[in-house]
Design brief:
Blueprint (H helix, E strand, L loop, with lengths): L1 H17 L9 H58 L1 H10 L10 E2 L5 E2 L58
Antiparallel strand pairs: 1-2
């Protein structure tokens, strides 16, 4: 038994030599500082990332709000354009400008011959003018309705006694 006790003492002695005998804070200080610096750096980077995400979120909500406002404005403008493009509105505006409905058209063939009989436009109102409704869905409720019929301005309708030759018209190209 003495032999095993000596061996134990020998092993314990060798282990005791590997371990420092006194309190050694010098070896732990750099490790503790490294851990504290890593935790502090991680916390600061997490706060910066969170701030950047919040700023992006605020910017995104502002852009969404602006997109909604611009979409509403675009739809209102499209309703106005549609209201001005309606046939009744176009006819009314044309009459306000002094335009009259044209007669039957005449066409020029590529060889210069006239196809059709040209007629002078008359200032007589068309018999198919229907009264405009009081309000249309394209117009806002606060705007007054336009008058149902606008009298065309009087234009001199003096027929000429000299024969007229039709003027060439552009093909629109």
């Amino acid at each position: 038994m003495t032999r095993t006790a000596e061996q134990m003492k020998g092993r314990a002695g060798r282990l005791a030599r590997l371990m420092p005998s006194g309190p050694s804070t010098a070896a732990r200080t750099p490790f503790v500082l490294l851990v504290v610096l890593l935790l502090a750096g991680g916390l600061i980077s997490l706060l910066l990332l969170n701030s950047a995400l919040n700023e992006g979120s605020f910017r995104l909500s502002k852009l969404k709000r602006e997109t909604t406002e611009l979409t509403d404005e675009q739809q209102a403008l499209q309703r106005d354009v549609d209201g001005y493009s309606e046939p009744d509105a176009l006819e009314r505006r044309a009459r306000e400008l002094g335009m009259v409905p044209g007669g039957s058209p005449a066409f020029l063939d590529p060889d210069g011959t006239v196809r059709g009989v040209p007629e002078r436009a008359s200032a007589q109102p068309s018999p198919t003018v229907a009264p405009a409704p009081a309000t249309s869905p394209a117009e806002p409720a606060g705007t007054p309705a336009p008058p149902a019929s606008v009298a065309p301005p009087a234009s001199p309708a003096t027929p000429s006694t000299t024969p007229t030759t039709p003027l060439p018209t552009s093909s629109g190209r």
